[in-house]
């Protein structure tokens, strides 16, 4: 039915004479429907087994077959036959060389999905008959006398695509070791990790014979891709508290391509295809008990050779390449002033974290393959390609200075009872300055972003300062202030500021109350014209109080927001207020009981837990600028959970919403929704 795009109904007159005229008869068509449900019968088989030979091995296997008509509720891809055979063996008899093996074979038969239209999740590579083999062999060789353990591995992935007359065959070999040296010395590493990997990935098409003409299709070249992977990691500890951990990894990919010429002769090409290198280190340098800087650096270089050429290209495959480099470096220092001046009460709690970070990246195209980018480990020194068409597409250099201060200045001092809250005063400030220089195809820009101050002050037990202990307790006051300036040199300037306060306390040992106020503003300036282009400001206030009343937990809340925006001429582009009172109610009731089961002399435990959440809200919007922002909206949402037992839960949810627009009556609406869910847990 998915392939039927149109149905036509009418009267076919095989005679030339007219059956009737428009006045004498008519045809009525009511509906078209299936007479009965579509029934598909499918079969599936599965056999599995696991065995153990004590002190020798464990092994097992599985066979599974599913035909194209078999479906389950979770079946993703249908309309194909599938047969899966797999087995495994873990051999543990040799303690110095435990080994594990696994092998699987999957055969699928998929019809042409363009004709059946029953699945859009099948790739064209999977049409027809495909046989997929996967196998793995792994082992760990443990040598005596503190020699390093050697991990060995082999895997093969073979895919036979009969519909395309193509075979994909990948063989991978790997060896790795991680060795903790038994000898100690300042210049010797404490640990060495090595890894080597080799893989051959072959794509091969069948020989030309009879109907096997896949080899004649443009682009269907036989290819052999060879990948070599190297990885080295070391850990050094030259003296107490100091570490240096360098690492290096390299992945090189080469390819051999056999191209079929017009006269059916073959041309073999060998070329570099890609390269990936990562060089880096991280270190911790302890010079004194309090001066312990951390340093790290990492750079990743990616090379991608141009191997897919047009028929008119005069280049050879792999002759030119694109080079992408990304690096990051950082030096950081955490300073606790208590370690520098342990006798100072004022500076005892002052902690400063500082860092300077470099983040660089560039992209080059049309670089000759002979250029060695592996040794170009500093992006701020450009590459030196000899190819006249080579160029740097983009470069980004970013420097970031970050300072974080945390201080409780009066914690070590004693105050009178009325002033004792100042002992809890906590200050936190952050200074950040980032300088970013960009060059995109010769177009340079420089942006400086400064965050200062970004201050947060916290004070506890505020009720003591205001003589409010009789009705207020557990209070905490927070104040926030921040400024941000973003300047694109010679182009634009944006200034932002934020100020906020909030107060939390428990009133009359019952009402958990929260008061919040925030104000924000920004200003944009065009530095080229020397004029202000935009100014915005916004304020919001909210208050809420939570308390219990019987089985209910109630939270009445009030929110008020105002915002405005002006362009460079002072004209308001946006202005409005939003007032939102609301009430949140929650009830949680448990009535555990039991249900006696007849004839079994057993009792089924029932949880009988009811959880109800509901929100009643009214929102009033007013704006003298935007006509659409003048409306009143009332809404009620609820969700109820009834937990019958630990594995059975019924959920009911719904809501209703009504909007009245002050000017545009066509915008008025009434909306409601209802949903239910029954959950079984096994």
Protein model, in words:
The protein is mostly beta strands and 682 residues long. The chain contains three helices and 29 strands. Helices cover 2% and strands 61% of the residues. The chain has a 27-stranded antiparallel beta sheet. Strands 24-25 form a two-stranded antiparallel ribbon. It is extended, with a radius of gyration of 37 Å. The two termini are 37 Å apart.
Taking pLDDT < 50 over at least 5 consecutive residues as the criterion, the unreliable ranges are none
Structural class: mainly beta
Share of β-strand residues: over 45%
Can you tell me the overall shape?
Answer: extended
- Biggest pleated-sheet summary: 27 strands, antiparallel
**How big is the Rg?**
37 Å
Average of pLDDT = 88
Instruction: State the distance separating the first and last CA atoms.
Output: 37 Å
Secondary structure: helix percent = under 10%
Total count of strands: 29
Tally of individual helices: 3
Compile the SSE list and pairings:
Layout (H helix, E strand, L loop, with lengths): L43 E10 L3 E10 L14 E11 L7 E12 L2 H4 L11 E14 L8 E12 L4 E15 L10 E15 L16 E14 L7 E18 L5 E19 L9 E12 L14 E17 H4 L10 E18 L22 E17 L18 E15 L2 E18 L1 H4 L6 E17 L3 E16 L3 E16 L4 E19 L2 E16 L4 E19 L2 E5 L4 E5 L2 E14 L8 E15 L2 E14 L7 E12 L2
Antiparallel strand pairs: 1-2, 2-3, 3-4, 4-5, 5-6, 6-7, 7-8, 8-9, 9-10, 10-11, 11-12, 12-13, 13-14, 14-15, 15-16, 16-17, 17-18, 18-19, 19-20, 20-21, 21-22, 22-23, 23-26, 24-25, 26-27, 27-28, 28-29
């Amino acid at each position: 039915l998915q392939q039927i795009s149109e149905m036509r109904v009418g009267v076919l007159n095989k005679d030339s004479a007219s059956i009737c005229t428009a006045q004498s008869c008519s045809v009525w068509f009511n509906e078209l429907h299936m007479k009965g449900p579509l029934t598909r019968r499918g079969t599936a088989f599965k056999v599995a087994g696991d065995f153990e030979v004590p002190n020798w091995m464990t092994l097992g296997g599985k066979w599974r077959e599913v035909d194209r008509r078999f479906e389950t509720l979770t079946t993703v891809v249908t309309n194909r036959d599938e047969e899966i055979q797999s087995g495994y063996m873990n051999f543990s008899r040799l303690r110095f060389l435990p080994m594990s093996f696994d092998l699987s074979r999957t055969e699928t038969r998929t019809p042409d999905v363009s004709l059946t239209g029953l699945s859009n999740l099948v790739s064209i590579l999977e049409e027809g008959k495909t046989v997929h083999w996967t196998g793995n062999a792994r082992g760990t060789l443990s040598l005596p006398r503190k020699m390093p353990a050697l991990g060995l591995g082999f895997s093969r992935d073979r895919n036979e695509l009969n519909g395309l007359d193509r075979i994909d065959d990948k063989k991978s070999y790997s060896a790795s070791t991680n060795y903790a040296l038994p000898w100690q010395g300042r210049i010797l590493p404490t640990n060495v990790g090595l890894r080597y990997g080799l893989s051959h990935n072959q794509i091969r098409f069948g020989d030309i014979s009879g109907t096997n003409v896949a080899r004649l299709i443009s682009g269907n070249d036989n290819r052999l891709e060879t990948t070599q992977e190297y990885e080295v990691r070391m850990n050094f500890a030259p003296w107490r508290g100091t570490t240096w951990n360098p690492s290096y990894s390299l992945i090189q990919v080469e390819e051999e391509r056999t191209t079929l010429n017009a006269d059916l002769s073959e041309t073999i090409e060998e070329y570099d295809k890609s390269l990936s290198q990562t060089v880096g280190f991280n270190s911790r340098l302890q010079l004194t008990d309090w001066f312990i800087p951390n340093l790290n650096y990492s750079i990743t270089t990616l090379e991608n050779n141009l191997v897919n050429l047009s028929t008119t290209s005069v280049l050879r495959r792999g002759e030119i390449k694109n080079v992408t480099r990304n690096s990051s470096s950082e030096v950081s220092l955490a300073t606790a002033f208590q370690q520098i001046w342990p006798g100072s009460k004022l500076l005892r709690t002052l902690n400063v974290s500082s860092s300077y970070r470099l983040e660089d990246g560039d992209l080059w195209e049309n670089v000759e393959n002979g250029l060695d980018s592996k040794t170009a480990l500093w992006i701020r020194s450009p590459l030196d390609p000899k190819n006249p068409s080579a160029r740097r597409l983009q470069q980004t250099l970013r420097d970031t200075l970050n300072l974080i201060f945390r201080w409780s200045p009066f914690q070590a001092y004693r105050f009178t009872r009325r002033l004792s809250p100042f002992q809890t005063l906590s200050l936190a400030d952050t200074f950040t300055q980032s300088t970013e220089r960009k060059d995109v195809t010769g177009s340079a820009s420089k942006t400086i972003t400064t965050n200062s101050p970004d201050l947060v002050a916290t004070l506890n037990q505020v009720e003591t300062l205001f003589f409010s202990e009789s009705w207020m307790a557990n209070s905490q006051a927070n104040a926030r202030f921040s400024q941000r300036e973003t300047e694109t040199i010679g182009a634009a300037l944006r200034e932002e500021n934020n100020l906020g306060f909030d107060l939390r306390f428990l009133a009359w040992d019952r009402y958990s109350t929260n008061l919040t106020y925030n104000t924000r503003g920004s200003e944009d300036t065009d530095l080229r014209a020397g004029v202000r282009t935009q100014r915005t400001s916004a304020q919001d206030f909210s208050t809420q109080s939570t308390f219990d009343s019987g089985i209910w937990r109630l939270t009445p809340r009030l929110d008020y927001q105002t915002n405005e925006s002006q362009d460079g001429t002072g004209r308001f582009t946006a202005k409005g207020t939003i007032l939102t009172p609301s009430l949140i109610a929650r009830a949680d009731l448990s009535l555990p009981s039991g249900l006696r089961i007849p004839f079994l002399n057993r009792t089924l435990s029932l949880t009988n837990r009811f959880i109800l959440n509901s929100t009643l809200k009214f929102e009033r919007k007013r704006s003298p600028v935007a006509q659409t922002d003048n409306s009143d909206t009332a809404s009620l949402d609820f969700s109820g959970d009834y937990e019958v037992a630990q594995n059975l839960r019924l959920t009911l949810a719904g809501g209703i919403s009504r909007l009245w627009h002050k000017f545009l009556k066509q915008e008025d609406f009434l909306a409601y929704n209802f949903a239910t869910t029954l959950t079984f847990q096994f």
